[in-house]
Amino acid sequence: MDRGRLVDPYSEALARVAMEVAAAAGDAARLRQEWLRCLRLVDEVDPGGLPSSATERLYAELRRRLPGPDTPDAGDDWAPGARAAAGNR
């Protein structure tokens, strides 16, 4: 994955794979890190933009499966759609 990121650091496909790997390992913190990285990279390319709906859906589904502080009811302001709902802060 790291080699792929060297070739295409802005690839959402690689971001989705990284999120799936983190979830498969049961690593909620890593899943969140990968999501935040994806948000940051999308914002670099398209200021105020959001990841694709496919990436948002994947993150939402994966975080629902994992226990820990990054659950849907934990008030996560980085949840899919949260930035859009909050006026793209």
Tell me the total number of β-strands.
0
CA-atom Rg in angstroms: 12 Å
Number of helices: 5
Strand percentage, roughly? under 5%
User: In one word, what is the shape?
Assistant: globular
String of helices and strands: HHHHH
Distance between the termini: 30 Å
Unreliable stretches covering 5 or more consecutive residues: 70-75, 84-89
Average predicted confidence as pLDDT: 80
The number of domains: 1
Describe the main β-sheet briefly. none
Secondary-structure-based class equals mainly alpha
Level of helix content? 55-70%
Write up this protein:
The chain has one domain. By secondary structure, the protein is mainly alpha-helical. It has five helices and no strands. Helix 2 runs antiparallel to helix 3.
Task: Explain the layout of strands and helices.
Layout: H1 2-7, H2 12-24, H3 28-45, H4 53-65, H5 82-85
Write a compact overview of the structure shown:
It is built from five helices and no strands. The chain has 89 residues and is mostly helical.
Task: Provide key terms for this protein.
mainly alpha, 5 helices
